[in-house]
Amino acid sequence: MEHRADSRIARTWRLLLKEISAFGVVGAVCFVLDVGLFQVLYAHAGVDAVLAKLISTLVSTTAAYFGHRHWSFSHRARTGLRREYALFVAINGITLLLGLFIVWLVRYPLGQEGALVLQLANVGSIAVGTVLRFLSYRRWVFPATDRQVNRAAPSAASLEKAA
């Protein structure tokens, strides 16, 4: 019985490591896509900066959604493209607002003007947002299937036998 629990724990950790790794790769690729597309649109195509940022964000967010849906969380339940994408965009919007709030808080109420301090606030907000996005995607956007939940959670009978 103990070997079974060990293999279940090992499976769970492998799956979590796969999700985290794929999440990081997709995020890095989409970050480069966002920055690169913004640069092309603004610096080379003459598109207004705000419009260029809107387009680059929409493209990179959509690419991130499909990357996460088909790779990072490919083993999880499919609950419908519209539902998943709407939640995905909402979660990204909330974490964007959180990041803006953190930078605003450091800059204005705390009175910090230094580029290094503000960049540290920015990076900190990105780190917090990344953790919140990962957990939110796993919980709400790409939920575990019933089979995954049942396989990962030990049954009451197996807990009694182990005791």
Explain what you see.
There is one protein chain. With 163 residues, the chain is mostly helical. The chain has 2 domains: 1-77, no CATH class; 79-141. It has 6 helices and no strands. The chain has helices at 2-44, 49-72, 81-107, 115-141, 146-152, 156-162. Helix 1 (2-44) runs antiparallel to helix 2 (49-72) and helix 3 packs antiparallel against helix 4 (115-141).
Give the topology.
Layout: H1 2-44, H2 49-72, H3 81-107, H4 115-141, H5 146-152, H6 156-162
How would you briefly describe this protein structure?
The protein has about 160 residues and is mostly helical.
List keywords for this structure.
single chain; 163 residues; mainly alpha; 2 domains; globular
Order of helices and strands: HHHHHH
Task: Please tell me how large the radius of gyration is.
Answer: 20 Å
Please give the largest β-sheet.
none
Structural class assignment = mainly alpha
Quaternary class = single chain
- Helix percentage: over 70%
Number of separate helices: 6
